[in-house]
Design a protein that fits this description.
It is a single chain. The chain is mostly helical and 246 residues long. The protein has one domain. It has nine helices and no strands. The chain is globular, with a radius of gyration of 26 Å. The relative contact order is 0.07. Keywords: Signal. This is Transporter.
Length: 246
């Protein structure tokens, strides 16, 4: 009987002093959710900073405008500027129509550079032909053999080779690292480089904290110097078959 009472007492003590597995996992899930929300909030803040700087550069008033409004105005201004540069008539056309015409003008321009015949070709088919030619050129530059690969497979291999090339240029070891790990390593290395260029103390600080300081305190200067993440993007025409997206 005494043994039974002891076991009951021990069971009661454990049940009141040790959190249950369900409580533990609930707490873990809540922490993870808060972390994700915080990360999402930071990304939205950074995106808004990007947009504000772009808007200011384009002479657009930013005061009192939310992210969606700024995005709309920046996109419209850029499309109209590109239309003017490409000699595309803008009168009486909405933004979607203008964007389509600007895109086609860019494709034709690139086709001429590549020696591709334009006359009588459907705009989408011409865009795909130009894209494929550019992709094959990039493959050759990276030492990738396109033989036997369809367009999607070649795009994947070229992207992987391009990432490895960037990693090697930054003295990042590529052995036993997948594409995701290499992207992360490149991202972090560039953040540290930007911080050093801006005179930000990096001692004992991780990439996440440095990026936060760069974006919230030094974004304008980083953009002025074209430092990461404001550096000029390479390979704009390799973002998909819909070339000219910016």
């Amino acid at each position: 009987m005494k043994g039974f009472i002891f076991l009951m007492a021990l069971s009661l003590m454990l049940s009141t002093s040790v959190p249950s597995a369900s409580a533990f996992y609930k707490g873990f899930a809540e922490d993870l959710q808060q972390e994700r929300q915080s990360e999402k909030s930071k990304k939205e803040t950074y995106h808004h900073i990007f947009l504000k700087l772009q808007a200011e550069e384009l002479g657009i008033e930013t005061e009192g405008k939310d992210k969606e409004q700024l995005h709309k105005e920046v996109a419209e201004r850029k499309i109209k500027q590109s239309a003017k540069e490409k000699g595309v008539e803008t009168d009486g056309k909405d933004v979607k129509e203008l964007a389509k015409e600007v895109h086609h003008a860019e494709v034709k321009e690139k086709a001429e550079e590549l020696g591709i015949k334009i006359k009588g070709k459907d705009p989408q088919l011409l865009a795909e032909e130009v894209y494929e030619k550019l992709l094959n050129q990039r493959a050759k530059e990276l030492g990738v053999d396109p033989a036997g690969k369809d367009i999607e497979e070649l795009k994947k291999v070229v992207m992987e080779a391009s990432i490895k090339q960037k990693a090697n240029a930054l003295n990042i070891k590529t052995e036993e690292k997948d594409v995701g790990e290499l992207r992360k390593a490149i991202h972090e290395k560039k953040i540290f480089q930007t911080a050093e260029e801006l005179g930000i103390n990096t001692d004992g600080r991780n990439a996440e904290k440095l990026l936060d300081e760069i974006m919230t305190k030094h974004a304008k200067e980083a953009k002025k110097q074209k430092l990461y993440p404001f550096e000029k993007k390479e390979g704009v025409l390799f973002q998909g078959h819909h070339m000219g997206e910016k």
